UniProtKB/TrEMBL annotation:
GO biological process, one term: defense response to fungus
One Pfam entry name: Glyco_hydro_19
Region (Disordered): 1-26
Protein name: chitinase
One MF term in the entry's GO annotations: endochitinase activity
Similarity comment: family membership: Belongs to the glycosyl hydrolase 19 family. Chitinase class I subfamily.
Domain of life: Eukaryota
Enzyme class: hydrolase
Reactions that this protein is recorded to catalyse: Random endo-hydrolysis of N-acetyl-beta-D-glucosaminide (1->4)-beta-linkages in chitin and chitodextrins
EC number: 3.2.1.14
Keyword Disulfide bond among UniProt keywords: yes
Amino acid sequence: MTPQSPKPSCHAVMTGQWTPSTADRSAGRLPGFGVVTDIINGGIECGKGSDSTGAVADRIGFYKRYCDLLGVSYGNNLDCYNMKSFGQISINSTEKSNFYN
């Protein structure tokens, strides 16, 4: 439940305590399960426009199953296909990764 800058905590996202900044919104990062995937595996799975391995789709399926078992809504923004991952910045129109740990 501890954020690792520049990422919010997964808990804050899922409990509605995280509000995306203007930069987050520009990067396609909106509240929902997709941001959680971005927090955990962003550089590997997010921002690629599709899910060639099926890993994101599988994760969304598991998430939906648990939501159904708990009787809660899935919410919006379940995938991260078109999100820029946290720490990815644009310099001179060239995408570069800048990982913070």
